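I can't quite decide. Please look over this sequence plus structure tokens:

:::
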Amino acid sequence: MLTAVKLNSRADSWTSESSMVRSLSERDIKQSCILIVDDEPLNIEVVRRYLEIGGYRNLISTDHAGQALPLMGLNRPDLVLLDIHMPEINGLQILAAIRSDESLCRTPVIILTGSSDPDTKLIALQAGATDLLPKPVHSEELLARLGNVLKVKAYQDRLYRHSEELEEAVRRRTSELEASRLDVIHCLARAAEFRDDDTGQHVIRVGRYARVIAERLGFSQRELDIIEPAAQLHDVGKIGIADAILLKPGKLTPEEFEMMQKHCGFGKKIAEPVSDRDAVLLRNHTDIGARIMNTGSSPILEMARRIALTHHERWDGTGYPLGLAGEDIPLEGRITAVADVFDALSSKRPYKPAFPLQKCFAIMAEGRGTQFDPEILDAFFDRRDDIIQVQINSADTN
């Protein structure tokens, strides 16, 4: 029974493939564009006559070998009938040029040759000739071989178009999924920011500032597309901070500041998958923020976890929550630290007014080598005009 099933399956597959070939074979290949290249006008005339008798009308020809490739580029023929021995450029050189051109390489080429040398035929086949026909050309053999080649090309063209359609569908779906994922990230980032920012523009600006700095540091386009949304999630751990602390207009007590520091860990936890250790780790604010974003292998969320945990670390090692120093702090954390502090200084917050721009830059400069990585701060100042433009474009309007 199993053997019968296998045989039936193979038969069904063969039937399906046969019907596809048959449908392609029945299509009107007589409209195919055919280019004839031969240095003898008489040979061209004979071949044209044979093809016209066979019902082919879309014919192009040249007796100047140097015109072959320009004509191919202009007309995109479905098939080329090519002589080998020609002045200026021989047929093998033209064939090599066709096969090396990405836009022409799938074009079938039938070699017409008067040479009986087997080595010449072998060389032509090795160079990519689709088929060979001896001169003088026999009309029925020419039409039969040409018809077979065009049927195969029609079948291959259909497969090629189908492959392109599938690739486009995959690209479109991937783009849609990417857009949806970014929408979720933006919503999560702004949900946290709305806790103490009515406009939610802080996270947008920090992401764009981080991108500007990273671009100056030589990040690739792919890396820039990751760090911008990842930096927007830097304060997602605020979700775990009580309003009484987060929205307090005055100075925080030491106990309140200790709780505020926990937003780093909260952000890390938000980015991580749920595990049995969550109950313990949630006690540390620096873990929570980064765990919120741990949902698997997303490059953005992987970077977001590191940023959430380390964007309050300081270059001199006096930051929190881990007390990392220098290059032990992840690069994206050092970049976001500069972006976040600048936006905090230049924006109105519940506990302070927005500082004038020159004062913001002066305070940032004071943190060189202590709070901030000098190289990243230099990159920030090098792109000062772009930073200001981001501030203008994403200014709070409420």
Q: What stands out?
A: Residues 20-160 form a domain with the Rossmann fold fold (CATH 3.40.50.2300). The mean pLDDT is 79.
